[in-house]
Design a protein that fits this description.
Blueprint: H1 3-19, H2 23-36, H3 41-53, H4 57-70, H5 75-87, H6 91-104, H7 109-121, H8 125-138, H9 143-155, H10 159-172, H11 177-189, H12 193-209, H13 219-235, H14 239-252, H15 257-269, H16 273-286, H17 291-303, H18 307-320, H19 325-337, H20 341-354, H21 359-371, H22 375-388, H23 393-405, H24 409-421, H25 430-439, H26 446-456, H27 466-472, H28 476-490, E1 509-515, H29 522-533, E2 539-545, H30 553-561, E3 564-567, H31 573-582, E4 587-590, H32 601-604, E5 610-613, E6 628-631, E7 647-650, E8 682-685, H33 694-706, E9 711-715, H34 719-731, E10 739-742, H35 747-753, E11 759-761, H36 770-777, E12 782-785, H37 794-801, E13 808-809, H38 812-823, H39 826-838, H40 848-868, E14 875-876
Length: 892
């Protein structure tokens, strides 16, 4: 008998043994066949299949790889090779094998199903779902494909798809706990609360029915039962019920630390962070080496912006388990929060090379890349994190925030909404969602959104976006509460301040302005002349810049106006604070407050004896480490004084500085070039679109209807807002053609085009601020309605300093009546314009040198009090005579 014949005979025997379940005999026979013929395909193929069957996946993959080299067009061998690679977690290699199998048999349901599993392992979840769909088209009763389709759809946050797949699986296998779990979780995702509760009850009933009840007298067994029930409830996101189960388990067995850890995890998901932290602390008192407690408490500290404490906890965990991926990821996040983003990125890169499908690592790297100024890279990382973990609330929140910065408002709204839906601990993100909707004038739920903002101010919500409150609520108390929580969350005061009462002996008072806006930005447009006008005999002026370089002439001008400039973009807050202390700064002025790219934690270290909040943020910072707020008597009426935590410095005229050297409003486009009609009244509002509210917009539309031929000229902030504003006009009976949108342009051109408008209509509850001064500088009268809160009174402050207090109303009814009267009285509008044109260089609002003297008087009083050891106190600055503008020779 030839070697080939002997090999074939052993293959025949092996098949028979394999079929009858005699696996050892089958394996020996396959191997004997290969001794006679090493290239015997059937022996190689079936030996590999047998190795898969016996769980020896690496050996199976090696054997099957030899088989497919001999017969590459054997579909079943390619499938079996894919299964072996999949079991070895080599998902890319498995996917290639399944694709080769499907090229030979495109309707092979097991290949399609396993291909979906390989794609899921690669994090390509949407493609995995499509592969399961194709498998089920080929074999509609394929239970495993329905089950995996439900699991992956749930990971994608697709409640409808999860529910449909889970119900199909339950038809094929009624009572399966994993599919009952998926169904309950899907109903929760869909917000079908009553059905979700019923499904959860059905799941718990089925789970209990399949278990023997522990004896009532066995407390330890009872505790384990409650513990397992809690874990089951966690899987369907019933965190409140789960926390109760874990608490019961802990009470039944006081040393049950796993129950305490899981209880803390459920409390974290519920947003009850203080309770969760206390529970983790209790665990660590009993077992200082509990890695889950160390790492989960570190996450809470990271979420509370306490990275130094988190880093200490992570260090303890790494000492116990140096290879812990969770610990290394938390350490990277701590580096990012400690403002060492380069180190954080490097740490994340190493983790990604090791664990390429860990969503948290991409989220942390996104945060670090943002800190390095790489917004596009940050957005990409957040998107990768979301693709891997579609319900990761913090990744969704971060993606929404970076999309706002990139002015991608649609994706921002979608991500914020999904973040809010990801769990109760992310409820605070609703503030960002509401503000993003305001950016595009989406008023579909405006009244509900306003009510939600008020509800979010309850104590258990850690913080919400301050500008959402400012733009929607004319409520100084709400703004104060919001500011306090924002400061607590982002810049808690340090235990040991840097400045401890020393008396400085330098001759000139050292003032330091801190900002991310020393570039072509509205704040700097107002302040540039002030920096230049400071009295250098009495003051040394320091710029502390953490702004990006926009290569603008304004940035160059402002940088050149400081006696010293500290570029601290890449320095941690603590290091910047140390530098201010070393420089013996007398007065540190925060020009950012609670606005984008702010760094309040610098002043939280108390580097200076006097610390001031000014201009960038219209309201209190709610921070114990800020001594003074610069304002004026109109901005903060006596009745509202209690809603500002700082001591108030009341400046004469207006709190708002202006630069009298800004470009003059000359030249510019014609009405036709600007897209305006050649005749008719032009109402204008160049405020950001998020400041427009539906109630105010209705007033504007009535003014248009009552003033034939008039148009409303608005800022073209973004296409979504323009479309929504046009639609809202039509709903109010005004043709969309009566809205004209002005594109953003350079300051000189923007000031010049104001001359084409007749009346600026201000917004409420957030007024025009820099925009108001731009209009008045350009000679355009502005009509405002003053509210109760700081941001709702800025335009009134500015108008009074421009000698136009008559244009300040105190109700929307008066605002509308005066707007209509002005619209029908072109001569009065002309007189108002003439007042502004002729007084441009004499009005208090634009007297930059005089404002500088007022501000310097304020600084002298602040420093004097500090040097005498007196606490900060409210005070008024005395009004000084005007400083005439220099005359410019017109030549012969």
């Amino acid at each position: 008998m030839s070697a080939a014949s002997r090999s074939a005979e052993f293959v025949r025997r092996a098949f028979a043994a394999h079929k009858s379940g005699q696996l050892d005999d089958a394996e020996r026979a396959y191997r004997r066949a290969l001794e006679y013929d090493p290239g015997q395909f059937d022996a190689l193929h079936m030996l590999g299949a047998l190795a898969v069957q016996r769980g020896r996946y690496q050996a199976a993959a090696e054997t099957l790889a030899r088989a497919v080299l001999i017969r590459p067009r054997h579909a079943l061998a390619q499938f079996n090779l894919g299964v072996a690679e999949l079991r070895c977690s080599r998902h890319a290699e498995a996917l290639e094998a399944f694709d080769r199998a499907l090229a030979l048999n495109h309707r092979h349901a097991p290949s399609l199903h396993s291909r979906g599993n390989a794609l899921a392992g690669l994090g390509r979840l949407a493609e995995a779902l499509e592969s399961y769909r194709r498998a089920l088209e080929a074999q509609p009763d394929y239970l495993a494909a329905w089950q995996d389709r439900a699991r992956i759809a749930l990971r994608l946050g697709d409640g409808a798809e999860t529910l449909a797949a889970a119900e199909q699986a339950l038809r094929l296998d009624p009572g399966a706990l994993d599919m009952l779990t998926s169904r309950a979780a899907a109903l929760d995702v869909l917000g079908r609360t009553t059905e979700a509760a019923a499904a959860a009850a059905e799941l718990i009933f089925a789970w209990r029915a399949g278990r023997a009840a522990p004896p009532p007298t066995d407390a330890a067994a009872q505790a384990r039962e409650r513990f397992e029930e809690g874990n089951l409830l966690i899987s369907i996101r019933r965190f409140d019920a789960a926390a109760a189960c874990f608490a019961a388990a802990r009470e039944l067995a006081p040393g049950y630390l796993e129950a305490a850890v899981n209880e803390a995890g459920a409390l974290t998901e519920l947003g009850r962070l203080d309770e969760a932290a206390a529970r983790y602390q209790a665990v660590l008192e009993l077992n200082p080496d509990s890695i889950p407690a160390l790492l989960n408490l570190a996450r809470i500290r990271l979420g509370g912006n306490r990275p130094a404490e988190a880093l200490e906890l992570v260090g303890r965990a790494l000492a116990l388990d140096p290879e812990s991926v969770d610990a290394l990821g938390s350490r990277a996040f701590a580096y990012a929060l400690l403002q060492d983003p380069a180190r954080a990125v490097a740490e994340c890169d190493r983790l990604i090379a090791r664990e390429p499908l860990r969503a948290e690592t991409f989220n942390v790297r996104g945060v670090a890349r943002l800190a390095l100024g790489d917004e596009a890279g940050g957005a990409e990382d957040f998107e990768r994190a979301i693709a891997l973990a579609p319900r990761m609330g913090h990744a969704l929140m971060n993606h929404g925030a970076v999309c706002l910065r990139l002015r991608r408002f649609g994706p921002a709204i979608d991500s914020f909404r999904r973040a809010v839906e990801s769990g109760p601990q992310m409820e605070f993100v609703r503030g960002g969602l509401i503000h993003a909707k305001q950016q595009v004038a989406d008023w579909s739920e405006f009244d509900r959104d306003v009510a939600e903002l008020r509800r979010l101010l309850r104590p258990e919500v850690p913080h919400i976006t301050p500008f959402a409150v400012i733009a929607a609520l004319d409520d100084p108390e709400a703004q104060q509460q919001c500011a306090r929580r924002q400061t607590t969350a982002t810049a808690p005061a340090v235990a040991v301040p840097l400045y401890r009462g020393e008396r400085y002996r330098h001759e000139r008072i050292r003032i330091a302005y801190l900002s991310a806006d020393f570039k072509n930005h509205a704040t700097t447009v107002l302040m540039a002349g002030l920096f230049e006008a400071h009295d250098r005999d009495r003051f040394e002026v320091i710029g502390v810049s953490f702004s990006s370089d926009d290569c603008s002439a304004m940035r160059q001008r402002v940088h050149g106006s400081f006696d010293r400039l500290l570029d601290v973009r890449r320095l941690p807050d603590a290091v910047v604070a140390e530098k201010l202390r070393e420089l013996q700064v007398d007065v540190a002025i925060d020009l950012k407050g609670h606005t984008a790219e702010n760094r309040p934690a610098i002043l939280a270290h108390r580097p200076a004896p006097v610390q001031v909040n000014y201009l960038g943020y219209p309201g209190t910072m709610g921070a114990a480490f800020i001594d003074y707020l610069l304002a004026d008597e109109f901005l903060i009426p006596a009745a509202e004084r209690g809603y500002y935590d700082e001591r108030i410095v009341y400046l004469p005229d207006s709190y708002q500085v202006n630069d009298r050297s800004r470009p003059l409003p000359t030249g510019g486009a014609t009405r036709l070039q600007a897209g305006l009609p050649s005749e008719g009244l032009v109402f204008a509002c160049f405020n950001n679109n998020y400041k427009i509210t539906p109630q105010l917009y209705s007033v504007w539309m009535r003014l248009l209807l009552a003033t034939p031929g008039s148009v409303l000229w608005l800022l073209a902030d973004n296409p979504l807002a323009a479309a929504n504003l046009r639609r809202e006009a039509e709903l109010r009976g005004v043709p969309a053609s009566r809205l004209v949108f002005a594109e953003r342009c350079e300051l000189a051109e923007h000031l010049a085009r104001h001359r084409l408008a007749d009346l600026f209509l201000d917004t409420l509850p957030c007024n025009a601020h820099t925009t108001a001064s731009d209009a008045l500088w350009a000679g355009l009268p502005l009509l405002t309605c003053a509210g109760r809160s700081f941001p709702a009174r800025v335009a009134g402050s500015v108008l009074r300093a421009a000698g136009l207090g008559e244009l300040v109303t105190s109700s929307l009814a008066d605002y509308e009546a005066l707007g209509l009267a002005l619209g029908r009285d072109p001569q009065r509008l002309a007189r108002l314009r003439q007042h502004l044109e002729s007084g441009r260089h004499s009005l208090p609002l634009f007297d930059t040198p005089r404002f500088a003297r007022h501000l310097e008087a304020a600084y002298l009083e602040m420093v004097g009090r500090a040097r005498r050891g007196d606490p900060p106190a409210d005070f008024h600055v005395a009004r000084l005579p005007p400083v005439p503008a220099p005359t410019v020779s017109q030549g012969c």
